[in-house]
UniProtKB/TrEMBL annotation:
<keyword id="KW-0845">Vitamin A</keyword>
<comment type="similarity">
    <text>Belongs to the calycin superfamily. Fatty-acid binding protein (FABP) family.</text>
</comment>
<keyword id="KW-0813">Transport</keyword>
<dbReference type="GO" id="GO:0019841">
    <property type="term" value="F:retinol binding"/>
</dbReference>
<dbReference type="InterPro" id="IPR031259">
    <property type="entry name" value="ILBP"/>
</dbReference>
<keyword id="KW-0683">Retinol-binding</keyword>
<dbReference type="InterPro" id="IPR012674">
    <property type="entry name" value="Calycin"/>
</dbReference>
<dbReference type="Pfam" id="PF00061">
    <property type="entry name" value="Lipocalin"/>
</dbReference>
<comment type="function">
    <text>Cytosolic CRABPs may regulate the access of retinoic acid to the nuclear retinoic acid receptors.</text>
</comment>
<feature type="domain" description="Cytosolic fatty-acid binding proteins">
    <location>
        <begin position="7"/>
        <end position="24"/>
    </location>
</feature>
<dbReference type="InterPro" id="IPR000566">
    <property type="entry name" value="Lipocln_cytosolic_FA-bd_dom"/>
</dbReference>
<dbReference type="InterPro" id="IPR000463">
    <property type="entry name" value="Fatty_acid-bd"/>
</dbReference>
<dbReference type="GO" id="GO:0016918">
    <property type="term" value="F:retinal binding"/>
</dbReference>
<dbReference type="GO" id="GO:0001654">
    <property type="term" value="P:eye development"/>
</dbReference>
<protein>
    <recommendedName>
        <fullName>Cellular retinoic acid-binding protein 1</fullName>
    </recommendedName>
</protein>
Length: 134
């Protein structure tokens, strides 16, 4: 259920994110900022079933709205223009982004009350952990 993801999540750790950004083609300067940024993730669902993922930080705020299983055009925080689809698989929110013949996936799941985000590009996996704000 998407509802279990709803709330405001504060990042508490980020592992291997620089390698992940490198793997998807993010430039050095943007990676420097990306590595220092600890965004909050706000997840909401409206009455029509549109899911909103909003990433807020002092550097940049990005927001995507979508319906599960429906492809949409996304402009990512690092300005990639992707075709994206988000599905719910075994309790995980799986976001697949395709651009320029490449594909990456971002899997979010709730484990022990934490939101664990796995960013996967080929062999490279970054893990970002969030805790729910009271």
């Amino acid at each position: 259920m998407v509802e279990s993801f709803v709330g405001t999540w504060k990042m508490v750790s980020s592992e291997n994110f620089d390698d992940y950004m490198k793997a998807i083609g993010v430039g050095f300067t943007t990676r420097q900022v990306g590595n220092r940024t600890k965004p909050n993730l706000l997840v909401s669902v409206d009455s029509e079933g549109n899911v909103c993922l909003k990433s807020q930080s002092t550097f940049k705020t990005t927001e995507v709205k979508f319906k599960l299983n429906e492809p949409f055009d996304e402009t990512t925080a690092d300005d990639r223009k992707t075709k994206t689809v988000v599905t719910l698989e075994n309790g995980k929110l799986v976001q697949k982004q395709s651009w320029d013949g490449k594909e990456t996936s971002i899997e979010r799941e709730i484990t022990d009350g934490k939101l664990i985000t796995r960013c996967v590009m080929g062999e490279v996996v970054a893990v970002r952990t969030y805790v729910k704000e009271a």
